[in-house]
Structures are given as C-alpha cells and as structure tokens.
Amino acid sequence: MGKGVSHGLQRDRILRAAAQLFAQRGYHAVGISAIQEAVNLGRGALYHHIHSKEDLLYEITREYITDLAAFAEQLDADMDPRERIKVLGRHLVLKIASHQAELTVCFRDVQSLTDSRRAEVVALHSKYEKAWREVLVDGADLGIFRPYDPVVLKGVLGMYFYSYLWIRPEGMVSPEAIADRLNEMALRMVQP
To answer: Which GO terms describe its molecular function (predicted)?
Structure first.
C-alpha cells in the first residue's frame, strides 16, 4: 500500500473516531489523548495526520453539510415540489442514519468552530436551508403549498435534523420508514 493511501486511510480512521467521541461526549469534553487512545496512536503519530482537534471538527462538519447541500442543489427544479421534499427528506434521514456520529457533530457542534471556519460551515448550512426554502416557495407559487413561512421551514428542517438524537439505524423502525413518516408530516405542515 502506498504511503499516500495509508495516510488517507489513517486520516479517515482518525476522523471517524473523533466523530464518535465528539458525538458521545461533546466536542469540548474530548481531549487529544482520548482521540490518541481511540486510534491507538501516540501524540507524534496523531499529529502527523492532523494539525489540531479543531481541524477534525472542521473537516467533519464541512464534509457532511457540503454533501447535503450538493445533493439538494442537483435536484431538478422542475420536479414536483412534493416529490422534491420526499427526495430531500429521505436523503437527509438516510444520511443521518448511516453517519449518525458525523451528523450529530455537524448539527450540534458547529458553534465550537472559530471565526472563519464557523462562518464557512454556517454558510453551507444556509445554502442547504435555501434549497429547502426554494422547494416551499415553488410549491406555494404553484398553489400546492401554503404561502411560504420561515417558521414552518425551521420546523420542517428541525424535525429532520433532530432525528440524530433518537434514530437507531438497527432499530425496530427502519430509516426508510422513518423518512416516509417524516416526509408525510412535512407535507402536512406545508399543504393548505
């Protein structure tokens, strides 16, 4: 295995371990020594792969919100708004279920980033929210949704986002079934 490949794999392993620790304990409660222990690396070896604990937080939060925003932006604007909500909702719930630790960190710990990094990640969150807002506005313009209301948008997004607290990928209700239920509730919230 080449040095670049092993470095990348090691970095991914560190990111996954950090996300698990941050999700379980909270970003501020996790020290570098806990990350070292989780990945079984000494301080020098760990710092060979990372620059700081905040770098880990930044990479985790940026990667997952970037992915969500990119997915939302590529949806066909001519798709029926009801279907777009279903596609967006399903993608979000399945992403949370498959990367629960990372999305927990993405939604909960973004305020722990410093200045420009926080601004960048918050802007990505806004970009994702804008895609949802456009769906609600398009539906309102077509007369199939009630007039756009920013409080309803926050309520809809919050319903999906906070599933990171309780969703259990291996639970009695599958992530797909949870997505269907949340989508049904979201549509009831926006339809006249």
So the answer is: DNA-binding transcription factor activity; transcription cis-regulatory region binding
DSSP letter for each residue of the chain: --HHHHHHHHHHHHHHHHHHHHHHH-GGG--HHHHHHHHT--HHHHHHH-S-HHHHHHHHHHHHHHHHHHHHHHS-TTS-HHHHHHHHHHHHHHHHHHTHHHHHHHHHSGGGS-HHHHHHHHHHHHHHHHHHHHHHHHHHHTTSSPSP-HHHHHHHHHHHHGGGGT--TTSSS-HHHHHHHHHHHHHHHH--
Average pLDDT score over residue span 21-30:
95
Residue 188, Cβ density class (10 Å: 0-12 exposed, 13-18 middle, ≥19 buried): exposed
What is the spatial distance between Cα 180 and Cα 7, in angstroms, rounded to a whole number?
Answer: 39
Higher pLDDT, 190 or 50: 190
Residue 47 pLDDT class (50, 70, 90 cuts):
confident
φ, ψ of residue 24 in degrees (nearest 5):
-75, -45
Correct CATH for 1-50 of 1.10.10.10, 3.40.50.300, 3.20.20.70, 1.10.10.60? 1.10.10.60
